[in-house]
Design brief:
T9SS type A sorting domain-containing protein, 4 helices, elongated, five-stranded mixed beta sheet, mainly beta, about 375 residues, single chain
Amino acid sequence: MDRQKINLGELPLTLNATITDRKINHYDHTNSLFNATQSYNMTLKDYFQMVTIPEDGIKLTSILSEWNVPNNQTLELRQIAGSARNSVISYAITYREGDTNLDGIVNILDIQSTLNYTLNQKPKFFNYGAADLNKDKNLNILDIILQINKIQAGTQEKKANTSKLASIENTVLSIENNTLFIESETNSAAAFDIRLKGISKTKVTEMLSAIGYTASIAEQNDEVSIIGFSMDKILSGKQAIAKLTANATIVSAMISDHEANELSYKITGKTLGVDDFDSEKNNLVVNYPNPFMEQTTIQYQLAENADKVSLIVYDTRGQIVRVEENLGTSKGKQELKFLRKELSSGIYFYTIKIQTGANLRRLTGKMLIQ
């Protein structure tokens, strides 16, 4: 039984990757029984450590939280004691290039994870080898650009099980007046990959550079990808992302918070143009007169008593220009006198936010100040 060699093949480096041995390695010939655990000297490139493997195995991430080994690197386990001491078990550690957070797929979360690492905001788990795409042993913006190219060259990847996300659809994507918006309620978006159809790359005008964000726009298989990220900023409130053409629709998105957690989102209609805010098409909220010069009355309908109601007014760039709190919360018809004050002439969009328990509802409208 001494010095046997067992090659257990490839072991993909992911969060759930588990090292296991064979039952024979746990057998104690002297006492004719199987031990619950077995100890090994583990060698992985320049790394050496003693590990104890239980019958159900041990996760790779329990041994190391940060990995920096070449792809297909051999991991060797040499048994320390027992009847099969000095026996060797080996694996080939493999991973997907670009999968820095070890979730087995490559998407915007990996970009945010890499950004955090370069800024010394160390992720809980990180694969340096997968992040160093140009293999120069120096992690920097060049690797992030290669990561973006890899992501935008294919379809958007998501986990099979997304039941445990960092938010409950409190990030909203919309197209209003041919402008793509992202709005975050509580969890601020740090990086995102938004996929569009019905538009070509040449027709997209990004609006992120003005706020210190880096934007990358690519087109593949009749789908446009807009990736946005920043080294030191996050998006909060409602932010305009890009100017689009009339036929553009949102297909899907992957949104990351500043800790590289996936944010859930919802799309408020495939395309919301100026006409979608007309009062005639929305009988739950209306303002009159419209257009107006100095004052208008905003009237909205509540199906039940609410805990909190507020008004947010945006200009056509998506910037918040007015917030009014403590609106009427009783069931039925409610009215608010809205004064122009400092606002210049033009089109404005507004949202009535209705909070009832854990439920958040929005009513949208459009006003024109002359």
